[in-house]
Amino acid sequence: MNSHTHRLFCLEDYSITPYAISHSELYFSLEIEKTQVIAKLAIKKRENTCPGMPLVLNGDDLTLISISIDGKSLSAEAFSRTADRLEIHHPPIWPFTLEIITELNPNANRQLMGLYRSNGIFCTQCESEGFRRITYFYDRPDVLSVYTVRIEADQKNCPVLLSNGNLQESGPLADGRHFALWHDPFPKPSYLFALVGGDLEAVHDHFTTSSGKNVALAIYVEKGKPPQALYAMDALKRAMRWDEKVFGREYDLDVFNIVAVSDFNMGAMENKGLNIFNDKYVLANPQTTTDYDYANIERIIAHEYFHNWTGNRITCRDWFQLCLKEGLTVYRDQEFSASQRSTSMQRISDVRFLLTKQFPEDAGPLAHSVRPHHYTEINNFYTATIYEKGAEIIRMIHTLLDDKLFLAGIDLYFVRHDGHACIIEDLIACFSEVSGKDFSQFMLWYEQVGTPHVKAQFDYHEKDGSLTIILEQSLCPTPGQPKNQPMVIPVRFGLMNTDGRDMAYHADNHVKADIMLLTEKRQSFYFTGLTSRPVPSLLRGFSAPVTLDLALRNSDFAFLARHDIDLVNRWQILNQLLIQHLVFASQKAEKNCTAECNELIELIGSTASNESLEPAFRAFCIALPSEAEIASVIDRNVDPDRIFAAREALLAMIAGKYSVDFASLHQHLAIKGPYSPDAANAGKRILKNALLDYIVLSEPRPDRLSDIYTHADNMTDRITALRLLVQRFPHSEECNTALKEFEQRFSADPLAMDKWFTVQTSRSGAEALEQVKKLTGHPLFSYENPNRVRALIYAFAIGNQTGFNRTDGAGYAFFANSVLMIDKKNPQVAANLLTVMHSWHTLENRRKTKIKNELKKIASAKELSKDVADITIRMLRVA
């Protein structure tokens, strides 16, 4: 195995830079292969910096043309360079202007970090450390500078020239070129710098702020696609209005621009005044975009806009504080989505993501605290722990306070820290100040690794109508944290009677309203005044990101799954019952349906037909837990084939019992009129398509699916029918015909074709791998396009548990080879892809040995990137 040694960055080592860069003037002469960048940096020694301290700037893959200070070129002895830094040995002690001229090749930049070209468009991606690929700079979030940017380019090929801030001037130049001058008055870190140049078309609109300011809005897309950006524009305006209404945040520049590009490593980037998006989160039309896509466009447009305050105006001091901007902004986008759709359904979606993505991350070799204390490669920490668990921490703060105090704390944070690079304690101090509460114990949520487990026991005394609830918390030891301390865990609850209503009660001082505040390892809560034995409903609204073990009767669980007035908890209980059954069935290879199994099947049927419930909620309830979710609960000696068999058996039993009822309900849910992605219609479609999963088992007719596919007026229904054809009838004439028709219809639409690649990864059994391998040779597949890689290789590895986890290890070998191939050009995408293997150590021994060998193969590869080496080393530590 190669020894990949890379620098370890530690939180405790933080120190401020010895020099400040107050203003940055950048001049770009855009050329496909030889772009010249002139950076004029106004630099000043900080007050406590010793005279003669060298100036050390970050760089990466730069060609240095010249360097000067105050107009005088530096001699070769005055500075030194390595692959990743520039050091000026003895800079002036007075303020000075450093001019650096570099040359870039945007066309050859397939890392998609720094300045690169996507489909002929010049664009940038600088978070987290991409700016150093443009010029030498203090490329870290605590160095805030005011940017002025002049861009020159060929007017025919790049008629649109954009950067951060407001446009100051533009006009023609000689030789068919032109220029644009942009100025951003708000100091920002280098990771928020952005530039775009290309032949683009735009959707234009405007927004009037609450103070009467007119803001020009534009979304730039490839030619011919502006109509597909209308939904994104509508979502943007709704997000701007919502942020004013709920958080009092007005937009601050004269313009707000969004650009959609097809080659992008992430979802989107919140660059000040110039958001750059992966086009899959901007472009939409009913024929190519699913309901899920529409919801994601709405959410991510809002998320990046909300960063204008929580991330841009107030940024993070260092990358260890990444959750400061991301956790708070995810919480804000979740609340926005809830306001636009259904509060309960949005919360269930958020919780389901947490359970399936973040909880397994917490339990695996890539686990880390919400605020890490060290890292080798920061790009590997854009994780569900930082984003989603970070958002849950903000949500708990809201729960512990009330609406008024929570918003007061946020307002104080905005006022006190506007224009600052902050740490988590700065935000928490604001909540502490407005509420008078001590948050020192609560801070453990940021520091301790893993998911807390809460065990609940109940002692009811009928004689005096009293109930004692005993809560006990635990957190497994992790490397570096052998002994964890008790956390602050708000447990929202209700005590239900047999009529399905919450009971009145008297409680002790440890209960505030409907919250039990667990702060000790073991704690008792006392209730009196109960007229009958209650059924406790705990962790309502998923009030804390914990696992919960309830010492209740089987009848109590069934009661809560039918009657809990908190829909989040109702879904959670039913989902847990399903997982428990499937875990048992997969481990015992149980084929006969027990009494509990029959009751569970009846519960699914009655929920599906309950017209008093939202269609989307019913769809959530009848969708069985995924194979990966079941595997994460088993946690050791996992056999994907047995999990698949158990899940298929339960699907078949439900389908067999409710074939007539589900078919009738499916027909009843047909939507008349034109397609709309609104929550009501989307809810009907999600339920209708969830029912179809069962119907095709009870009535195995590919012709029916073919008919649905052919007559669908929207992508949601079309892709569902195609998926079921591939899953259930892969060798049928109907399946082959539909796949060919889809390819012919959408071959010119990359986002639709991503779906075509993904749907073919869902074939069951060993043959899926051969189909995926075949598709890598398709003319429209490219290892250099992140969307296409995710659509095929990631989708196969994450979504096809039996195909990927073939007993012969062929799935692992193909995957490892793909990671190594991608790593040569785009380490960030390769490392993100590799995280799919994070639960490898939970597999049964035969598979575990084979996947471990592939990880070792990756680790021993020559010229392995820091990104992939970091992930591989961390995953092999559990061996």
How would you summarize what this structure contains?
By secondary structure, the chain is of the alpha+beta class.
Distance between the termini: 14 Å
E-strand count: 33
Helix content: 40-55%
Question: Mind telling me the C-alpha Rg?
Answer: 28 Å
Unreliable segments of 5+ consecutive residues: none
Largest sheet: 8 strands, mixed
Describe the structure.
This protein has an eight-stranded mixed beta sheet with strand order 6-5-9-3-2-12-15-14, with no helix packed on it. The chain has a five-stranded mixed beta sheet with strand order 17-18-19-21-20, covered by helices on one side. It contains 27 helices and 33 strands. With 879 residues, the chain is of the alpha+beta class.
